[in-house]
Structures are given as structure tokens and as C-alpha cells.
Amino acid sequence: MKPILYIIIPCYNEQEVLPITAPRFLAKLTMLRDLGKISDESRVLFVNDGSRDATWDLIRGFAAADPHYLGISQSRNRGHQNAVLAGLMEAMDRCDITISIDCDGQDDIDAMDAMVDAYLDGCEVVYGVRSSRRTDSFFKRFTAQSFYKFLSAMGAEVVYNHADYRLISSRVLREFANFKEVNLFLRGLVPLVGFKSTTVSYDRTERLAGKSHYPLRKMIALAMDGITSLSVKPLQLITGFGLIVALVSFLGVLWALITAIAGRSVPGWASMTCIVCFVSGVQLISLGIIGEYVGKIYLETKQRPRYIISERTWEAKKSERKS
Q1: Confidence (pTM)
Q2: What is the spatial distance between Cα 34 and Cα 153, in angstroms, rounded to a whole number?
Q3: Are 167 and 116 in contact (CB under 8 A)?
């Protein structure tokens, strides 16, 4: 029996690029179907993440023109990770496999062939991994590679040079649904589920149209979410650093006492000022890191919904038929 594939595509203010990439996704779906790898019940599922432009109107138009297009719209903008999650959870009981991919056309859609082949060979998760970053600027390449290395150093389990282009089976998704984190970092959460996995390499190209909605600021925020959601290593580093500072301070006290007893002490404000500033800085940084964890705990205990679907294209069709 051929597997049903749902291609999950998060969209936020993508009216410029969607008319270009939507036909490409459908063509890839059709090609995989014609090759006998997937079922004709496979679909392209767009997730509108509270766009302020004509993105949702375009998605509804696609769905009206071809039944292989589906769309859901969130009640407001909740961010890329929540949009991907909404699509995955919506598709979980409708398909056998999902492939999440951005709508900007930068990820090579032909890598889907190898992903589906890997699934047919027994893999439940297939990660799309960039083979190189030669198309990136030096700053983008440096920050991105540092991002992955820093996450790994902090104890977050991530696949190097993998973003959110991946195949996940419905079997894995049902287990993943038990992860209730509000602070989502899918790149680190999916490996925690386990199951047989592999990687597929591909080349990433320039964005086909529009502008990126993932600047450095959002990348840093995502890194912080990844670290504080998946690792307690920063707290352990604070403890270790605190012990070192305490030891140095203790040695400094002994030196001051010995100097005072020997009568060689000279009053001075420079050394005292340096010590006070150093210790104060360490305390403030430590409190800031602890505050990040406390804030995450605060958000998790509220158990607010991670996404709210306000519209579905197939429900709109049903209401039109009834009327």
C-alpha cells in the first residue's frame, strides 16, 4: 500500500513567493505519485501563520482550484515553530508521512525523492541537511555554524546544518504529540523521540521572491529557546563558575589578611572597585540566566495552547455546499 504524504508548508506574509513555489510543490507531489512512491490521497498543506498580507487569500484560491491543496490558518501569528507544529498535528491522522519545508523555495524539493526512498527503506525520520553554505554571506555562514556548534556545546541534541526540512512518519508524530512543551525547538525535540533516522544532503539556493522573515534577532531567540528548553548546562556552568569565583575570593581574603598582619597593606580603591565590579557582573549574568529558566517554567505551567486554528479550507468548502 502506497503511503499518503502531506507536505507541510508554514507561511507568513508570503504573497510574493507563494504563486511561484506552490505549483512546484504540487508538481513534486504529482511526480512522486506517478512514480508509484506515494498515494494519490497525498496533499500539500499550507499553514498560514497569521499573515497580514494576501497569503491566506492565495491559499484559499489554491485549495478551490485543486483538491490536492489544503490550508489551515492560525488565529494569530504564533511563530514559525508553532506553525510547523500545527501543520504536523493537523496532518498526523490523515497521512502516513509528512515533509515540512519552508515556502521560499530555498530548500531543494528534489531531496524529497530521497527522503521518501529512505522512509520506504525503513527510516521513520529523515533530516534534510545542507551540503554546504557557499551561497551564504560570511556573516550568515559564521553565525549559522556558530549557532549549531553552540547548541551542541550546551547539550542540545541537534543535527548539524539541519533546519526544519525533514520527513517524519505518522508513527513518530503520535509519540511526538506527547511532548507538551510550550517553548518549541523542533530541531532539538524531534531527535529526542528516537526511532530509526537518517540524513539527506541537498544544496540550498537563494530565496525565489520576497524577503526573509528570520533575521539574526530571531535566530538568537531560537537558540535561547533551544538551550533553555533542552539543557540545564548553563545552570551547571553558573555553579562551576561560582565555585571558581568563591575559591579566588577566598584566596584573596587570605592574601589580604596576611598582608595586613605583616603591616604591608596599602589602602587603594582600584583593586576593590575591580573586585566589586567583577563579582557584581557575575551575579547579574547568573541571575539573568536563572531568570530565563524561571520565565520558561512560568510559561510552561500556564499550559496555554501552542496554536489555535481559526479556518480550514475544507471546512469552508463544506459550508459552501450546505448553503
Answers
A1: 0.74
A2: 44
A3: yes
